From TrEMBL:
This is DsbA family oxidoreductase. Residues 7-208 form the DSBA-like thioredoxin domain. PANTHER family: GLUTATHIONE S-TRANSFERASE KAPPA (PTHR13887), THIOREDOXIN SUPERFAMILY PROTEIN (PTHR13887:SF41). InterPro entries: DSBA-like_thioredoxin_dom, Thioredoxin-like_sf. SUPFAM superfamilies: Thioredoxin-like. It comes from the Bacteria. The lineage of its organism: Bacteria, Pseudomonadati, Bacteroidota, Flavobacteriia, Flavobacteriales. It comes from Winogradskyella rapida.
Length: 212
């Protein structure tokens, strides 16, 4: 029987390095022709669990959280845009960009798992936030993303206010944090080994070759 590999990706929708890391992993899988031998599951991690409903100015947020000056932020954003371009992804940073709360997005990603649409929804939401200047905490934006990937928006959105669904995401976040995952992206292979950060495509290739 052909061995398959389960990869859990612990990440957030508004994490640029998570997008870069995933796109590099995707490239490695494609170049090795392993699409049928890898199963990806996205796991929740909120970079900003206490982010208010109306979000926060991105420049102010990054300065408060990491102490980065405006010049440092602009340099970092230019670097991410260049990495994105190499991978066919657009990072469109703009002056009034806001960091937003992603808890609802994680509930919807869990819902999408049942229909094998997790990766499609994850990338749709990430694209909406980074490439299309959309607020992925806004329920209309979330509704459109669900429709775009062919999911039942009404059924999915109904889960957002259920305590059982909210508790499920909190429990999953705690599970990964208790395992020592404190930065994202973290790629976990068959729940046995892990890589943290947006590793180069060649590193992912090496790991995939070793494990498969």
């Amino acid at each position: 029987m052909t061995k398959t590999l389960k990869i859990d990706i612990v990440s957030d929708v508004v994490c640029p390095w998570c997008t870069i890391g995933y796109k590099r992993l995707e490239k490695a899988i494609s170049e090795l022709g392993l699409e049928d031998r890898v199963e990806i599951e996205w796991q929740p991690f909120e970079l900003n669990p206490n982010m208010p409903a109306d979000g926060q100015d991105l420049t102010e947020h990054i300065n408060e959280k990491y102490g980065a000056t405006l010049e440092q932020q602009k340099a970092s954003q230019a670097q991410m845009a260049a990495h994105g371009e190499e991978l066919g992804f657009t990072f469109d940073y703009f002056d009034d960009m806001r960091m937003v709360n992603t808890f609802d997005a994680h509930i919807l990603l869990d819902y999408a798992k049942t229909f094998k649409k997790q990766t499609a929804l994850k990338m749709r939401l990430t694209t909406a936030f980074f490439s299309e200047r959309q607020d992925v905490s806004d329920r209309e934006v979330l509704k459109q993303a669900l429709l775009d990937v062919g999911l039942n928006a009404e059924e999915a959105l109904a889960k957002l206010d259920l305590e059982s669904e909210q508790e499920k995401i909190r429990t999953e976040q705690s599970y990964w944090k208790n395992l020592g995952v404190n930065s994202v992206p973290t790629f976990v292979f068959d729940r046995k080994s892990a890589l943290t950060g947006a590793q180069p495509t060649d590193t992912f290739k090496q790991v995939l070759n070793e494990l498969l």
